[in-house]
Each structure stands twice: as C-alpha cells, then as structure tokens.
Specification:
Elements: H1 3-6, E1 14-17, H2 21-33, E2 41-44, H3 48-57, E3 62-64, H4 68-71, E4 75-78, H5 85-91, E5 105-108, H6 115-121, E6 126-132, E7 141-147, H7 153-164, E8 167-171, H8 177-184, H9 187-204, H10 209-229, H11 234-240, H12 247-257, H13 260-278
Parallel strand pairs: 1-2, 1-4, 2-3, 4-5, 5-6, 7-8
Antiparallel strand pairs: 6-7
Helix pairs in contact: 8-13, 9-10
The chain binds NADP nicotinamide-adenine-dinucleotide phosphate.
Length: 279
C-alpha cells in the first residue's frame, strides 16, 4: 500500500518543536514512508547552527528558530529537553484550530512530563504522551501512548499510524509509563552494557576484539528473535541450552553468584523511580 495515497497527513502541516535526536528518529522514517511529505514539515530548533546543519542534510526541509509556523500546524511533535519545557510553552503562540477543525494535536515525547502538566501548559491543544525508545532509529522501536482528554478516535488512529512506522505501538494507562520507560528506554543501555561485558569475556577467552563485538551483538539479536518468534519463556530457553555439568550451567552459576538477576531488577526499578522523581 502506498502510504502517501492514504496518508491523513498529506494535506496537513506537521510541526516539530525540537528536531533533535529523538524527533529525527521519528520524523525521517515518516518522511521516507511517504506518510508525512517533506514539504509539510515545519520544524523548530534552538540554534542557528542546528538549523543550518539540518537544512544542509535535508534539502527542502523547513527549519526555523522561530517556531511560529511549527506551532500553527494541526499536528505537532514536541521533543525538546524537559528542562526547556516552561520556556518553550511561554514562547508558544495560543493554539488556533482551523475553522471547523478539531483543536490541534500535540504529541509530547518528553520523558516524565505528565499529561496534566502538558494540558495546563497547552490548554488549546489535545495532548498525547508518547514514550518511544531509541531502537526507533532502525524501525525496531517500542512506543507507549497515553491519551489526554478529548483526543478523537480519528486523531488516535493517526497517532497509532505515525508511531507504527518505527516499531510496535502500545496504549497504556499513564501510571504505567514510568515502568515502560525504565524497561524500554533505559533498557537498551542495560543491554548494551551486557553486550560489551560479554564481548570483554570473549576477548579474555582469546577472541579478537572486533569479532567478539560482532558475535555478542548477533547472540543478543538471535536470542531475542528466538524468544519472540517461538514465544518462549526465558526460563525455557535457558533450560534448552543448559546440559548437565556443561559449559552453560558453569557460566550461570557464576552469574548467580555475582547477583546478575538482582542487579538487573534493581536497575529497572531505579530507572522507574527516577522517572517518577523527575516528573
Ligand atoms: N533520546 C531518547 O532515547 C529519548 C527517548 C524518549 C524520549 N526522549 C525525549 O525526547 C526529548 C528530546 O530528547 P533528545 O535526546 O532528542 O534531545 P536533543 O537531541 O538535545 O534534541 C532537543 C532539540 O530541541 C531543540 N531546541 C532547544 N531549544 C529549543 C526551543 N526553544 N525551541 C525549539 N527547539 C528547541 C534543540 O535544538 P539545538 O540543538 O539547536 O539546541 C534540539 O534540536 C526529551 O524530552 C527526552 O525526554 C528521548
């Protein structure tokens, strides 16, 4: 199916306030898929240096320091750092819906900023909180959505369609977003640490460094694919590769001695608690 021919965004402007790493990870796949035409995008950044770099990298992309055009769009992605939120909200013009149209839709990806606060800062917008993760960069992302008041079924369908371009989309009660973020947004860093440490172990066992990294990544990716595609419980997979008095159980014994499970449980919990604290 050609996304451009059915895109609800084809005839609408698409605003982006803060076209940094996260917004780029979301926006460029949308443009490539044809869902959002490049010409429809009105982006704002915080410095002329970034604006010039983005214009050079993406000819035809409208990037401004003054976010007036982005704010005028009926659909808007808000992706500035949370500490800039108050200043950005203070500088934003009041929301103006097109005649006969729904109030504009604001999609916030700001970590830990609650729907209630966003609604207070942007009273003329309908608000959606989205929690995407970095694997969106390779379209293997996960995004949780929590809906603010008054978002129409049609607007919900647009938003699901947008985030589906970069991975799987879940709709969650807002209270579950801290736990979701801890696992899916902080999780890639935890897994990267595991990948690095496993590669170090392989180097210690005599493999060349580049090969050790390659093999560690492929082992993680292959294991994740196996768990997912065969819908295995992790314990089942562990038992599948653990033979009596074999190599794997020797390694697992060491991991249990070192408290790997407890370390990971506490890491996810600490990230969730920090997310609550920041909110
Ligand atoms: N990275 C992640 O994995 C991730 C995941 C989920 C959610 N998030 C959320 O995404 C948001 C952005 O994170 P990021 O990592 O993408 O940060 P980032 O790369 O620093 O991007 C922030 C962007 O905001 C722009 N900006 C600064 N001041 C502005 C202003 N007054 N008006 C408009 N734009 C302005 C910056 O432009 P300049 O560079 O010119 O200053 C930059 O383009 C954060 O709120 C974070 O919580 C991130």
């Amino acid at each position: 199916m050609n996304a451009a021919s059915v895109s609800p965004f084809a005839s609408r402007r698409f605003g982006v306030i803060g076209l940094g790493r996260m917004a780029q990870a979301l926006l460029f796949p949308l443009i490539e898929s044809g869902l959002v035409p490049l010409a429809a995008v009105r982006a704002a950044v915080g410095s002329e240096v970034s604006a010039e770099r983005l214009r050079a990298q993406h000819p035809g992309l409208a990037v401004q320091l003054d976010g007036a055009e982005a704010w005028a769009a009926p659909v808007l992605l808000l992706a500035v750092k949370p500490q800039l939120l108050d200043a950005v909200a203070a500088a934003a013009p009041p929301a103006a819906a097109e005649a006969g149209a729904e109030p504009p839709l604001l999609l916030s990806v700001l970590a830990g900023v609650a729907l209630a606060r966003l609604q207070q800062l942007f009273p003329g917008h309908r608000i959606v909180r989205a929690v995407p993760n970095t694997p969106c960069l390779v379209r293997a992302g996960l995004t949780a959505l929590a809906w603010g008041e008054g978002v129409t079924p049609e607007q919900k369908a647009w938003v699901r369609q947008l985030f589906a371009q970069v991975g799987e989309v879940l709709e969650l009660p807002e209270a579950q977003l801290d736990g979701f973020l801890a696992l899916t947004s902080s999780g890639p860093a935890f897994v990267a640490l595991v990948a690095e440490a496993m590669a170090d172990g392989a180097v210690a066992a005599g493999l060349p460094r580049a090969m050790a990294h390659h093999l560690a990544h492929r082992t993680l990716a292959g294991t994740a694919a196996l768990l997912h595609e065969q819908e295995l419980h992790p314990g089942q997979l562990k038992d599948m590769v653990t033979s009596p008095a074999g190599t794997t159980i020797a390694g697992i014994r060491q991991l249990e001695r070192s408290g790997l499970r407890s370390a990971l449980i506490e890491a996810v919990l600490a990230a969730a608690e920090r997310s609550r604290e920041l909110a």
